[in-house]
């Protein structure tokens, strides 16, 4: 009995979808885990040859941060581990009370670094920083904002942060 490549690919996609939809059950309910990802979108397409999954339309991905975008590409390894996520189109990232937005974001899962480009902007407690490229170091709260060409980094710093506890970056950025 021979199993076609298509049937294997369909089985793989179904298993991957099941694990993405039910990962808390699969991984357990350990506190503080950063390897669980839940993704919701209008459509999903998997290409097992390229080890690429594409989510399109109203994408919301949650790890220990949230990414909202028009499209999300997930590159995985031969062991089916996610190595990189690329969000494109109206990208918004929220982690705790911090947020960022831009046209494109690339997340390196091993390094836990997010690079946002294209009208990049970061916000926290009313402070806003704009540049051509913003690098978020998710485990250390460090941020690098870079400019290119003739443009310079622009920052608006709010002297009083009394409202910070009430500001929700997700609401400000329109990411649920």
Task: Tell me what the structure shows.
With 176 residues, the protein is α+β, with helices and mostly antiparallel strands. The protein has a single domain, classed as Lipopolysaccharide (LPS) transport protein A like domain (lipopolysaccharide transport protein A fold, Sandwich), CATH 2.60.450. Helix content is 15%, strand content 49%. The protein has three helices and ten strands. Strands 1, 2, 3, 4, 5, 6, 7, 8, 9 and 10 form a ten-stranded antiparallel β-sheet that branches. Strand 7 and strand 8 form a beta hairpin. It is globular, with a radius of gyration of 18 Å. The N terminus is likely disordered.
What value does the Rg take, in angstroms? Answer: 18 Å
CATH superfamily membership, which one? Lipopolysaccharide (LPS) transport protein A like domain
Strand content: over 45%
The 3D shape can be described as globular
Specify the structural class: alpha+beta
Count of domains: 1
Oligomer classification: single chain
Question: What is the CATH C level class, in words?
Answer: Mainly Beta
CATH overall fold name: lipopolysaccharide transport protein A fold
Secondary structure: helix percent: 10-25%
SSE pattern, N- to C-terminal:
HHEEEEEEEEEEH
